Recover the amino acids of this structure.
């Protein structure tokens, strides 16, 4: 609980009753709901001012679509975690959200307990998806691997990863959660997070999407 006590969350949804209910559930669980918003432009302004750790974001917003809100905010603050909470399970919506920088995607049919767990795991940097969607996203990572990589990842002077960082990266590319990686390597969840953050910094990548893409391009998911 100590790690979650100061966790700042913002809820964005254009339906007031739904937005208030989600915010109330999060606050009741001990999370700090620092702001809410009902449209895209308002979400951007308030998120920039309130600096939440996790943004719980609906995609269907007036003024500015949720994916654009996500892209704008994550682009300005790569440390921000975004959990999309949507009524749509359409594959195109899921993939567009992930490409825009979302860490996870949960359907609104999820229970309160599932939402709370998803917010906490999203804050830890874990990819969280409604069952059935994780495989879809991993498949998209593989497709992206056929496209040109970011220039920074291929520069001759790119820093070398340690053996442990490479091992963690390989498991990330295989689609394992941080918890599963920790169990597999018999290390702590926090250690896994640290290795991932160090790897992102060394490779000058911004998020898990780019990291997995980098790993798959190099065949690490097949190793």
């Amino acid at each position: 609980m100590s790690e979650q006590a100061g966790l700042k969350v913002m809820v964005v949804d254009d339906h007031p009753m739904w937005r208030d209910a989600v915010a109330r559930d999060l606050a009741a669980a001990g999370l700090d709901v620092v702001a809410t918003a009902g449209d895209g432009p308002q979400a951007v302004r308030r998120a920039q001012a309130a600096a939440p750790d996790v943004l719980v974001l609906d995609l269907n917003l007036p003024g500015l679509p949720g994916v654009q809100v996500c892209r704008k905010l994550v682009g300005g603050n790569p440390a921000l975690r975004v959990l999309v909470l949507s009524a749509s399970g359409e594959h195109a919506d899921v993939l567009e959200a992930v490409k825009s920088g979302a860490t996870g995607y949960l359907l609104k049919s999820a229970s309160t307990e599932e939402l709370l767990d998803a917010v906490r795991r999203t804050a830890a940097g874990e990819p969280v998806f409604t069952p059935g969607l994780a495989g879809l996203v991993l498949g998209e990572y593989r497709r992206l691997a056929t496209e040109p990589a970011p220039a920074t990842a291929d520069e001759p002077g790119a820093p070398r990863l340690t053996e442990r960082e490479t091992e963690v990266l390989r498991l990330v590319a295989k689609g394992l959660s941080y918890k599963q990686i920790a169990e597999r390597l018999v290390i702590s969840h926090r250690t896994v997070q640290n290795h991932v953050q160090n790897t992102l910094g060394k490779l000058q990548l911004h998020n898990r999407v780019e990291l997995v893409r980098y790993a798959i391009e190099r065949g690490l998911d097949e190793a």
Residues 149-157 have pLDDT under 50 and may be disordered. The first strand starts at residue 8 and ends at 12. The longest helix spans residues 189-203.
